[in-house]
Amino acid sequence: MLKWVWVSIVIVIVDQLSKWMAVANLEERVPEAIMPHLNFTLAYNYGAAFSFLSDQGGWQRWFFVALSFIVSAYIVYWLRKLSEQERWTAISLALVLGGAFGNGIDRLVSGRVTDFIDLYVNFDLFFLTNGHFAIFNIADIAITMGAVLLVVISLMSPEESETVKT
Predict the structure, then answer these.
(1) Partners of 129 in the beta sheet?
(2) Phi, psi dihedral angles at 35 (to 5 degrees)
(3) What was the pLDDT predicted at 85?
(4) pLDDT of residue 121
(5) Which of 145, 144, 146, 118 is closest to 133 using CA atoms?
(6) CA nearest 1: which of 63, 67, 62, 91?
(7) 16 in the Ramachandran plot: left (φ > 0), alpha (ψ -120 to 50) or beta?
(8) Beta carbons of 125 and 97 less than 8 angstroms apart
(9) How far apart are CA 105 and CA 65, in angstroms?
(10) 106: which residues sit within 8 A by CB, 6+ positions away?
(11) Which one of the listed residues 15, 106, 115, 118 is annotated catalytic?
(12) CA–CA separation, 104 vs 124, rounded Å?
């Protein structure tokens, strides 16, 4: 099912273009209001999700570069083994592949991931700081969408998943 790799390629292109535009047009940590509850705020993440391991002095860059490319290689292997009927699994894997590769490129080239999408609400919740969720990017959205779709597919009975997949 490598025919779905085009989805990954589109994700990487859109992700890299949007990051390039963010760097070219935004000042770091200065929010630009786009609409209510959405800012574009340039931020750099030297770690993983929610800046995990970002303060480790540099070794994490190469760890996450290697991890993203190992995961990408495994996803390509998995995609090759899928049957034609497993279309939704292939699409979800292609989303994860595009996101992992997009963030992997950032880490390889600059040692950090460029983030700029800042969603917020006007009150604090246990997982939001001052109403703001973590700043993220298009690659993060693709990874999340693909992972959620994989979980949903895995929770379906075989009969239901075949209906969704055709």
Answers:
(1) 132
(2) -160, 170
(3) 92
(4) 77
(5) 118
(6) 91
(7) alpha
(8) no
(9) 8
(10) 19, 112, 113, 114, 139
(11) 115
(12) 32
115 has catalytic annotation: yes
Each residue of 8-29: pLDDT tens digit?
Answer: 999 999 999 999 999 999 999 9
Task: Measure the CA–CA gap between 150 and 47, rounded to whole angstroms.
Answer: 25
The token pair at 125 is: 């919740």
User: Per-residue pLDDT for 108 more than 70?
Assistant: yes
DSSP bridge pairs for 113: 45
Residues 29 and 43 sit within 8 Å (Cβ to Cβ): yes
Per residue in 35-87, pLDDT (tens digit) is 988 999 999 988 655 555 555 566 677 888 888 889 999 999 999 999 999 99
Strands (E), 64-129: 113-119
pLDDT value at residue 65: 86
Q: Nearest CA to 34 among 133, 128, 113, 118?
A: 118
Cα–Cα distance measured from residue 56 to residue 31, given in angstroms and rounded to the nearest whole number: 27
In one-letter notation, the amino acid at residue 128 is L
User: What does the pLDDT read at residue 124?
Assistant: 58
135: DSSP letter: P
All residues at 6 or more sequence positions from 124 whose CB lies less than 8 Å from its CB, including other chains: 130, 131
Spell out the domain ranges in the chain. 2-22+42-117+144-165
Q: Is 106 a catalytic residue?
A: no
pLDDT at 114: 97
